[in-house]
Amino acid sequence: MALDATAKGTSSNSYVTQAEATSYFGDRSDTTDWTGATTTVKDKSLVTATFVLDMEEYEGYPTTSTQRLQWPRTGFVNRQYANVDEDTVYVVVKEATYELALAIIKGEYTMSDTGLEGFRHVKVGPLDVTPNLGRRAAQLPEIVVRMLKGIRVGGTGINIPARRG
């Protein structure tokens, strides 16, 4: 698997490159999991994060009918009601990809249920169970949800209406 972050590409599988992610995390203190990960793990986490984010529904429309991923988009305006460059992936989507990739590496996000997501604490003998209310597999981390607020259709918060320039 080769990471392909070509905007509007027909075989793209990531919204961002590993170099972009490393630059994004460069000045942060909570990213030792990223810096300590192998190149392969970083690439896989970025591809997985893109796959997950690409399943969401967003304002506007893909720029071309041949691009593999949902971004870049047309008919979309940013939070300041300005048109967004139709030739690049919107910066907020890139940042959400970085954050989700980091959550994947840290083990804070999983796409599949283990059956234990509903519990905060499980003790086998004698049985001691503490529910973990609100935690499910495939639930986007709160920071990602907040970043995508207003550009995700049906996401939390208001949606900014798409308009053509």
Can you tell me about this structure?
The protein has helices spanning 18-25, 32-36, 39-54, 91-106, 142-147, and strands at residues 61-62, 73-74, 119-123, 128-131. The chain has 165 residues and is of the alpha+beta class. It has one domain (18-147). The strands form 2 sheets. It has a two-stranded antiparallel ribbon with strand order 1-2. A two-stranded antiparallel ribbon has the order 3-4. β3 and β4 form a beta hairpin. α3 (39-54) crosses α4. It is globular, with a radius of gyration of 18 Å. The N and C termini lie far apart (38 Å). The relative contact order is 0.17. Mean pLDDT is 84; it is low at 156-165.
Give the helices and strands, then pairings.
Layout: H1 18-25, H2 32-36, H3 39-54, E1 61-62, E2 73-74, H4 91-106, E3 119-123, E4 128-131, H5 142-147
Antiparallel strand pairs: 1-2, 3-4
Helix pairs in contact: 3-4
In a few lines, what is going on in this structure?
It is built from five helices and four strands, in the order αααββαββα.
